[in-house]
Amino acid sequence: MNAGNQGGNQGGNQGGNPGSQMNPGDEAAPGTPGTGEDLCPQCSGKGKLGDGTPCPNCGGTGKIVEGIGGG
Ligand SMILES: [Zn+2]
Predict the structure, then answer these.
(1) Where are the annotated segments for Disordered (predicted)?
(2) CB 26 within 8 Å of CB 10
(3) Distance from the CA of 68 to the center of ligand 1, in angstroms?
(4) Which residues contact residue 35 at a Cβ distance below 8 angstroms, ignoring those fewer than 6 apart?
(5) What are the beta bridge partners of residue 35?
(6) Residue 26 has pLDDT above 60, yes or no
(7) Which of 2, 28, 53, 64 has an alpha carbon 20 to 30 Å from 9's alpha carbon atom?
(8) Ligand 1 centre from 61 Cα, in Å?
């Protein structure tokens, strides 16, 4: 019986993709099932803070990735 060897290798390691970096405000990598883009709550989707500095939460994109629904 080798039934114990399933599912241990999912989702933990998605690195090395230039252009798909996660930002501090992201809950998951872009394209992750069950997640979607939403406006960054820190900068209201502007990508900048009130003083004009790039928003660190979304990396200046104005959008973050967060889980949909959840539970
Ligand atoms: Zn932001």
Answers:
(1) 1-61
(2) no
(3) 19
(4) 27, 28, 65, 66, 67, 68
(5) 67
(6) yes
(7) 64
(8) 7
Is the distance from CB of 27 to CB of 67 less than 8 angstroms?
yes
Nearest partner of 32 among 70, 65, 8, 4, judged by Cα: 65
- pLDDT of residue 15 exceeding 50, the answer is no
Neighbours of ion ligand 1 (CB under 5 A): 40, 42-43, 55, 57-58
User: In the chain, how many H helices and how many E strands?
Assistant: 0, 2
CB 23 within 8 A of CB 57: yes
Q: How far is CA 66 from CA 10, 33, 63, in A?
A: 19, 11, 10
Check the CA dihedral 9-13-19-21 and report its sign. Answer: positive
